[in-house]
Write a structure and sequence with these properties.
By secondary structure, the protein is an alpha/beta fold. It is 41% helix and 19% strand. It folds into 4 domains: 125 residues, Rossmann fold, CATH 3.40.50; 146 residues, no CATH class; 96 residues, no CATH class; 53 residues. The chain has 15 helices and 19 strands. The strands form 7 sheets. A 5-stranded mixed sheet has the order 2-1-3-4-5, with helices on both faces. A 3-stranded mixed sheet has the order 8-12-9, with helices on both faces.
Length: 482
């Protein structure tokens, strides 16, 4: 039996419709020919439903000849067609292309088939290369390369070397993008919690109403939002990503464009050395320091506390089983409206037979009284905490900048090395100056009232003074820090 195969990826002027292809092919087949057609599918691979059915029919031995309107309707890939042709030969199936006017029943037809497919593949690869080169060139100039604008931006035009180029401008969603970054860098915020909060607030996502982890992660990782300065430059340079501009070009105002091959199944870029970063003509939304803090957290450098950890007692984490040393968990029994202490070595691993019979609330009351007594004994006048904290924060920020610069040195060109080395020297000098500037003021501090402290404050205070609390049956041993 003969078979007709037709394909059309999109409807466009000058393209023969599937119906037209079938009508032409019928002139070269018998009346009862099987018809297989794929509409809306590309010919760059064989993942097409009707094409798959045709191959199954061939393997079943029901087809003697396949007729197509044109070769590229059947396949645009020489490699794919080579495999298909082997399958057709194995099952003694002839192949006829109407437009090219040859068939595989003759040696000349088979030779012509290979030649035409070779040139079809060459044309496709050359076209793809031209498109790719043009895309890279536009990005290297700082122009928006094409496609929809990222969430928080709208398409616009910018002046570049006396001509208009595609660019981006912040739109009404820019405030939401800033809110996302500010909320995410909080230590207690997870991607899931942030996505849930945005959805509950009725803030629409980029493509649908609800937010999810993947959407947020893509926004947070995208350098298009960063007000890129030298720190952002060094962040990407340390990862081995190609950067064509020098670090002094990164002015802390404009955003960046990152391009490279992506693994569609994982939604991630593949090799970092095949990626390119370029400063863009559009202005960023997110300050460099905030954007980098988000990257640190995304890469796991900032540990995220579990949302429900220790929610039943401010002593959680300090309670230990004196027999096996494992942590003692606080289980809330809803039906009895009370908390029960359980050795995790017993409940999780079955390695301990200790049964703990201690009233948690009585233990909390006793320890709270002891902690208040310690707090009352503290001096009323101490060096200014705010001044100390500000100095420590400033030193930490400088050290983080130095770390990024040191990491970037390994991937830098000779010119960039000189520039980065000078930046490191300057930061070292600033750090030394801060370390030698001791706080000199003192202030009257507020007496802490433990009973009126919030839950998280109680946890911090307890952890500051208590090493651990060992529990054995109904006995308690509190080990205080020296």
């Amino acid at each position: 039996m003969d078979a007709i195969y037709a394909r059309q990826s999109i409807d466009k002027k000058g393209s023969l419709s599937i119906e037209g292809q079938i009508e032409l092919c019928r002139k070269f087949t018998v009346d009862d020919a099987l018809v297989f057609s794929d509409k809306g599918f590309s010919g760059k691979n064989t993942k097409r439903p009707a094409f798959g059915e045709l191959m199954e029919t061939v393997e079943a031995g029901r087809v003697k000849k396949i007729v197509v309107y044109r070769l590229d309707r059947f396949s645009r890939s020489l490699a794919d067609f080579s495999q298909i042709w082997e399958l057709l030969r194995k099952n003694n199936v002839e192949f006829l292309s109407v437009n090219e006017q040859f068939d595989t029943s003759s040696p000349m037809g088979r030779a012509m088939l290979n030649i035409v497919m070779t040139f079809a593949q060459l044309e496709r690869e050359t076209t793809a290369e031209r498109v790719r080169d043009n895309y890279h060139h536009r990005v290297s100039l700082g122009a928006w390369p094409g496609g929809p604008a990222p969430y928080g931006y709208a398409l616009s035009k910018a002046e570049l070397d006396g001509r208009k180029v595609s660019s981006l401008i912040a739109d009404e969603n820019a405030k939401t993008v800033l809110h996302i970054f500010e909320e995410y860098v909080r230590s207690e915020t997870s991607l899931r919690a942030l996505a849930k909060a945005l959805t509950e607030q009725g803030i629409h996502g980029p493509k649908r109403e609800a937010w999810d982890n993947v959407t947020l992660s893509r926004i947070l990782r995208n350098p298009v939002y960063a007000q890129a300065d030298e720190a952002v430059y060094c962040y990407y340079l340390a990862q081995g990503i190609q950067i064509r501009q020098m670090p002094e070009v990164f002015d802390g105002v404009h955003g960046c464009l990152l391009i490279g091959k992506r693994d569609r199944s994982r939604g991630k870029y593949t090799k970092k050395d095949e990626q390119m970063l370029s400063l863009s003509t559009h202005e960023g939304i997110i300050p460099s320091s905030l954007w980098l803090r988000a990257q640190d957290k995304l890469s796991g450098q900032m540990q995220l506390p579990r949302a429900n950890a220790g929610k039943y007692s401010w002593l959680t984490g300090l309670l230990k089983c004196s027999k096996c040393g494992y942590a003692v968990k606080v289980n809330y029994i809803k039906s009895e409206q009370r908390c029960k202490l359980v050795c995790s070595g017993r409940s999780n691993f079955g390695s301990c037979d200790e049964s703990i019979d201690v009233d948690l609330r009585e233990l909390e009351t006793h320890i709270a009284n002891e902690l208040q007594r310690i707090l009352d004994a503290c001096p009323a006048e101490l060096p200014s905490v705010s001044e100390d904290h500000a100095q420590a924060k400033a030193v930490l920020e400088i050290e983080q900048k130095i770390d990024r610069l040191v990491n970037a040195l390994a991937e830098s060109s000779d010119v960039a090395v000189v520039y980065i080395s000078k930046m490191i020297e300057k930061l070292h000098a600033e750090r030394e100056q801060l370390l030698h500037t001791a706080p000199h003021s003192s202030s009257q501090i507020r007496r802490l009232d433990f009973s009126h402290s919030v839950f998280d404050e109680k946890k911090l205070i307890a952890a500051e003074f208590i090493e651990r609390i060992e529990l054995d049956g109904n006995h308690v041993n509190i080990i205080w820090k020296a």
